[in-house]
Amino acid sequence: MNGEIRLLGTEELPLCRRLEGDRGWSTDEAKWRLMFEAGEVYAVDAPDGDGLAGCVVLTRHGDTLADVGMMLVAERYGRQGLGTRLMEHVLEVAGDRVVELTATRFGRPVYERLGFRPAGSLTITTGPVKGTAWGPAVRPATPDDHAALIGLDAEATGADRGRALTALLATAERTVVTDGGFAVAWNAGPHRVIGPVVAPSEAAARELILAAAHGADRDVRIDLLDAYPGLRPWLAGLGPVEGPAALPTMVHGADRHPGDRGRYVAPILISMG
């Protein structure tokens, strides 16, 4: 379908939430605000004048990496090529950057046609966490830690994500650090989201997750990547429940995700990497 692809402003956030409601999604406003602040939200207006026909979020991290998420097309405009148009647009904007995303089973065929390759998996895990005592190697972060934290994140992801992390840290409920790792906890609607998490070992990842979950007044959500597979059964033993199936992570412009992903435990958001 035709229609101009335009960049949305924050004041148009309600249009995005209405569009995702059309597809049965429900992303908390706090997550949308972070995507608007750190990324770029592109959309096409509905030809019938009723909201948006489709949208997609691109988050550029420095000059080397970009993440794509929230690729949505209104049901009444499905199967008209709009999803492909939106994806082609953000790939053009991303330029020479490696582009990564987490795919749903509906979106994966579109991404594969555009040259994305499977590179890993992500498991959504939510629920109350029992017993959040942690060891002495983990401590609360201070502003003096922020530069080192951004550096650790860059090593793990292969990109300078300082803009997104600075926006996140400004509203985080809790940020904890250990030697060679950190975790950020922030509240979004019914969940305390734990992410990103970077850890030098599985033992350190466990301590960071426990410290980040401490004091939560709501269920915890952590989207576990492939680093330290033993974390999945360990976390399930504390109460959180895994989603029905792991989601594939995919890359465009490379054979694999950049950086030292063996230390990258959990993303900021599925839609932001």
The 3D shape can be described as: globular
Estimate nothing, just give the exact number of structural domains.
2
Distance between the termini: 29 Å
- Content of β-strand: 25-35%
Topology, element by element:
Layout: E1 5-7, H1 13-22, H2 29-38, E2 40-45, E3 52-61, E4 65-73, H3 82-94, E5 98-102, H4 108-113, E6 117-127, E7 139-140, H5 146-157, H6 162-169, E8 174-178, E9 181-188, E10 191-198, H7 202-213, E11 219-224, H8 231-236, E12 241-242, E13 247-252, E14 264-266
Parallel strand pairs: 4-5, 10-11
Antiparallel strand pairs: 1-2, 2-3, 3-4, 5-13, 6-11, 6-12, 6-13, 7-8, 8-9, 9-10, 10-14
Any overview of this molecule?
The longest helix has 13 residues, at 82-94. This protein has two domains: 5-117, Gcn5-related N-acetyltransferase (GNAT) (Aminopeptidase), CATH 3.40.630.30; 124-266, Aminopeptidase (3-Layer(aba) Sandwich). Strands 1, 2, 3, 4, 5, 6, 7, 8, 9, 10, 11, 12, 13 and 14 form a 14-stranded mixed beta sheet that branches. It has eight helices and 14 strands. The mean pLDDT is 95. The protein is of the alpha+beta class. The chain is globular and about 60 Å long.
